[in-house]
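Quick one: structure tokens for this chain, please?
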Amino acid sequence: MSEWWTYRPSDFLLFSARTYWRLFELYNADLWPWQGVALVLGIGLLAATTLRGGERVVRVAFIGLAGCWLWVAWAYHLERYASINWAATWLAAAFALQGLVLLVQAGVGRRRVRERTDLARTVGVALTAYAVLAQPVLGRLVDRPWSQAEVFGLAPDPTVLATLGLLLATEASTAADRAARVLAHLAWPLPLLWCALSGATLWTLQTPHAGVLPLAGLLALGVAWRTRRAATTGPRPRRS
């Protein structure tokens, strides 16, 4: 028996890159033409983060995003990804849990879009725009066909990125209670964990853009930490 340190990450992967991307091709073929509906939903989410939306607009955005997580949990992870990866059933449960967290956040939490000058909002809008508009094109840049595109609301990676974007671009309203703030914190761990897991999978498959999701997760985490620290410490007094 070989020593454990001789194993590489690829030794634990149960599928090849060709099988993985073929899965997306079949998935998109089964769902056509719902990609257009998902694109409209994504543009609506982008508009919600770009415009000065109040609590009602943000609530609708969270409800729509929760539906996307629940759909990906069932239609992608459970119905398709599980056929090549036994861990997909656990991933489906995690995505369903995240969908419920976002749904509760929409019902209980009170959030609004940040000010235009806020760095968190700028980064959040950029992540959402990338997820909705650029992620589907990314495959073509590395010579994958359009049929294997990853579409927001249907595929996990762009859905996760858009979630991080919405979490960054919005903030708890001043009237929000402590429970709403706790819910807002609970919405972060699973998207960040998926960024690491998906990045590791794509890196093992030797995908050129494997680092995009982990870097986006680190960027979102860093900006969120900086924003929270600034809100906690408050503005520094000016020296006379």
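DSSP finds nine helices and two strands in the chain.
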